[in-house]
Each structure stands twice: as structure tokens, then as C-alpha cells.
Amino acid sequence: MRTFQQIGPLRTYLRGIRQEGKTIGFVPTMGALHAGHMSLVKRAEQDCDIVVMSIFVNPTQFGPNEDYNSYPRVLQQDLQLASNSGVDAVYTPSTEDMYPAGFQTLITPGPLAAYLEGEHRPGHFSGVCTIVAKLLNIVQPDRAFFGQKDYQQARIIEQMVHDLNFGYEVVVAPTVRAEDGLALSSRNAYLTEEQRAAACAISLGLNDALRAYTAGECSAKALREIVECRCRNEALVSLEYCSIVNSLTLEPVEEVCSVSAVILIAAKVGKTRLIDNILLPSRTS
Ligand code: PAF
Questions:
Q1: Catalytic annotation on 37?
Q2: How far apart are CA 93 and CA 23, in angstroms?
Q3: Of residues 233, 219, 235, 227, the one with CA closest to residue 278
Q4: Which of 53, 68, 90, 163 has the fewest beta carbons under 10 Å from its own?
Q5: CB 173 within 8 A of CB 40
Q6: Phi, psi of 235 (to 5 degrees)
Q7: Alpha carbon distance 264, 250 (integer Å)
Q8: Residue identifier of the C-alpha nearest atom 3 of ligand 1
Q9: What does residue 106 show for φ and ψ, rounded to 5 degrees?
Q10: How far is the centre of ligand 1, averaged over its atoms, from the C-alpha of 132 (Å)?
Q11: What does the mean pLDDT of the chain come to?
């Protein structure tokens, strides 16, 4: 596996790959890799000839009181995992390379970023779009791979790639869950054993709602109440939002049976903020 810290040598390497007629799959990450990231790598390996991963904890997507400083940084472990999973090249830029003195251009996403995470984490998606755009411009992959766990992020990136004519395909791969249902996230590492058990209320609530939907419940209010009830019953879980929205526009829906909808949830378990979601496919399609 090749590793690159500098843009120049990475570009030279990738130019060679393209000249050989090979396709490039790109998996951007902030490191602290887990099976969710590895499922993106596997998907990229299936769809493309070579897989490039980036590892960069991006300061511009963290708010002033968020966990930028404490975000897990385990580069050697990540490189080992990436190498074992067949990643061809890893790009680990420095903050100074990504945001050199004088840097001043940020991407501002549109209405998709106005609610939910956008409302609770002002500026977050501008930071995400900016770094993803930079990384896509550097790597120029054929396809880039993102996890469904960050549903709103994936939709915003799809929209950005479309609006700004980037010409890369965005692939969104299903959320990977632990045996107890908890969506895999690098932030799960912050949870104590007790908090980890309590955090399962989130995925249990989402699954309860999916079951009710499958059994015929169409009211978004009723489905939300099912999720909220699970979370209320867990003293360690503090719900930030539970919203049921159109899966494309992310606008709230009242009635879910005739549109493709998604339940999006954010909750704090202790000091750890977790997000999760579940799709409610349209019954009429
Ligand atoms: O999902 C993430 O890990 C990050 O938001 C991303 C896409 C790598 C941008 O920093």
C-alpha cells in the first residue's frame, strides 16, 4: 500500500493509474477506521480497479464546542487496517496543506443543509462540502463512497457533485451495525459500557418504527412517537431531534406511505452525540 502526505506525489501516482486505463474509487474518512469504513472499501474494490482512502480530521466541520481536539486519532492502526483490507493508496494530508495561510474559500450548501444536523451544527456542512470538494479535486476519482449513516451528509454531497458538475459518481453504501444494532461510528469509542448499552435505544426505536410502518402505520407523528418513546425510556439517552423527512428533499413529511421517507435521529448519550437513520421506502412505487 502506498501512503502520501503531499498532493504532488499523489497526483503523479494517480496520473499513472489513469494512464493505465484503471478506474479509481475514493473513500474519504476522518480515520479511527471501523467495519463501516471497511464496507465502503469493499464496495469500492468491487466497483473500481484501485482504491484510494484519505484520512484527515477536518477542522472546518467541527463547531467551537465540539470534539475536534479529542476526536480519535490512531493513524498507525488505521494504516494497518487499510493495508489489510486491500486499499491501494492512503492520503494523509496535514492541516497546513489543506488550509494553508490565506485560505478563504468555503462551499455553502443550500436548503438540504438548513435543518437537522445543519440546524444543530451551524457551519458543519460547509466544512464537509469544502473538504470533500478539495479531496475530490485532488484525487479526481471515478466514484466516491460514503456511508448511509451520515444520511444528510450523503444527500448534500450528491447535490454538490451534481450542482457543481464534478462529474464523479457518488455511491452511498448501507449503514453497518454492531450485533446489538448500534450503527458503527468512530464516536462509539467515547461510550462507557453502560452508555453503549443505553445507546441501543436509538436503533431499537428506529426498528420499532420500521415495523409499525411495514404493518401499515402511515402517520409521521405516530412513527416519531414510537422512536421517541424508546429514547425517553433510556435515562442516559437525550434526544436532540427525531424527524421524518422526504428522502430526497429532506423536507418534513406528515404522511409517509406515498413518498420515500427517512427517519433521522440525533441523540446525546452522556457527552457523546450520535446520529442514525432508517429508510421507509414508498409503498406506492
Ligand atoms: O464522514 C466523514 O467521515 C467526513 O465527514 C468526511 C466525509 C470524511 C469529510 O471530512
A1: yes
A2: 22
A3: 227
A4: 163
A5: yes
A6: -60, -30
A7: 10
A8: 29
A9: -120, 145
A10: 7
A11: 97
* pLDDT of 284 higher than 80: no
Measure the CA–CA gap between 121 and 49, rounded to whole angstroms.
37
Grid cell 423536507 is found at 251
- Residues 98-150: pLDDT tens digits? 999 999 999 999 999 999 999 999 999 999 999 999 999 999 999 999 999 99
Residue 247 pLDDT > 80, yes or no? yes
Question: Which triple of cell numbers denotes residue 106?
Answer: 468555503
The pTM assigned to this predicted structure is: 0.97
Which 3 state secondary structure label does DSSP give 226? helix
Task: Establish whether residue 28 lines the binding site of ligand 1, counting it when its CB lies within 6 angstroms of any ligand atom.
Answer: yes
226 lines ligand 1 (CB under 6 A): no
Structural domains of the chain, ranges and CATH numbers in brackets: 2-173 (3.40.50.620), 186-277 (3.30.1300.10)
CA distance 235 to 118: 26
Best residue for ligand 1 mutational test, from 41, 91, 121, 150 (most atoms within 8 Å of Cβ): 150
Place of cell 480515520: 31
CB of 29 shorter than 6 A to ligand 1: yes
